[in-house]
Amino acid sequence: MPHPNIEILKRFNELGGRIITIGSDAHNIKDLASHFDVAYDLLESAGFDEIAVFHDRKPSFIKIKDLKK
């Protein structure tokens, strides 16, 4: 089950939140990044069109549509 839930994500977006990341709690290599497609859809339905990735503690942004290809 994704966390936070859709209502919290929508409110974060409404309040101007932009830096959002996704992660995996995989305990096996085969599960790494599993269900990211669900996370992308959830974020899009909450109004986000990009996620943040960090390099040297600085965010850069990637369009979700580019990750779904």
Structure commentary:
The chain is α+β, with helices and mostly antiparallel strands and 69 residues long. It has one domain. Helix content is 33%, strand content 17%. The protein is built from three helices and two strands. A two-stranded antiparallel ribbon has the order 1-2. A hairpin with a 2-residue loop joins β1 and β2. The mean pLDDT is 93.
Sum this structure up briefly.
With 69 residues, the protein is α+β, with helices and mostly antiparallel strands.
Principal-axis shape equals globular
- Order of strands in the sheet with the most strands? 1-2
Tally the helices. 3
Question: What structural category do the secondary elements indicate?
Answer: alpha+beta
The helix-strand sequence is HHEEH
Distance between the termini: 23 Å
Q: What's the average pLDDT?
A: 93
* Rg estimate, integer Å: 12 Å
Question: Which regions have little confidence, pLDDT < 50, spanning 5+ residues?
Answer: none
Count of the domains: 1
Number of strands: 2
Beta-strand fraction estimate? 15-25%
Largest sheet: 2 strands, antiparallel
What helical percentage do the residues reach? 25-40%
List keywords for this structure.
alpha+beta; globular; 69 residues
